[in-house]
Amino acid sequence: MNAVRVNARKAIRCLPISCLTAFFAVGVLSAPATAKDRKTIIAEYNISFNGLSIGDFKFKSDLNGNDYDLKGQARISVLAGLLFEWRGDTASSGRVSASRPSPNSYSFGYRTSDKRETIDIEFSNNNVKGVAVDPPQKKSSARIPVTAKHMRNVVDPLSAVVMLTNVGSKKSGKEVCTRRLPIFDGKARYDLRLTYKKTKSVSTGHGYRGPAYICKVKFLPIAGHKRGDDENDHAAKSEGIEIWMIPLQEADVYVPYYVYIPTAVGSAALTSTAFRVDRSGRSQGASLN
After folding, report:
1. 22 pLDDT band (50/70/90 cuts)?
2. For the whole model, what pTM was predicted?
3. Which of the listed residues 16, 146, 260, 271 has the most CB atoms within 10 Å of its CB?
4. Helices 2-14 and 230-237 sit at what angle, rounded to 10 degrees?
5. Lowest mean pLDDT: which of 1-10, 91-100, 153-162, 179-188?
């Protein structure tokens, strides 16, 4: 029993929280709306580890003109929380200009039975204005320092979904997958590089049957991580991280159906269980619960 708990904790640590959040959030932000078009999209994902369901993730995007407001909630639990429980909340707001997101603010917080952390970032023109981390990160000579240059021309993990948005739901696999996302999460600076891998036919639980574009994802650490950290090094060396993109016809975009993340202690996966689109704007501010 204790070994299961230890492995669960290792699994969470092997998926850098910022990187994991970015993958969770990868999906379901549509193209910028017109000034009169308000849109809300809600997606739900099941989280599994080594084939066992351990939690869920819910993501909501509200769009009003070129302004966006994104929220996500994740819950991970082993044996109804008796062995391990992790809960996280994240949010981002900003504006899309020239097909690029320009975030205003970002927040992330998680808690377990014995730990908690909150991160808040303020942006201006894709440059970081301020960062608050509570509790403060412990200093380490092994950590590659984050400098001012690392906090320029970046987006937060949630705003990265805007950079993954594709206008139109009839793009080629290369068009859908080819992306490089410059991300700063408050503690670390890294890139996510996506490239097209292959196409596969899928049948989802929410009614879609057809091709899925499989994108290979490369995690590229730049600063904020420790030299020689086994978990970070494993993620950076991994060639197996994938995101499977399918068209969401009602929003005219591609969204992630399946996310696969191998770790040093097993494999984590997210599988979409629901997509809901509301173009009326009535869901603005609606809870994720």
Report:
1. very low
2. 0.85
3. 16
4. 60
5. 1-10
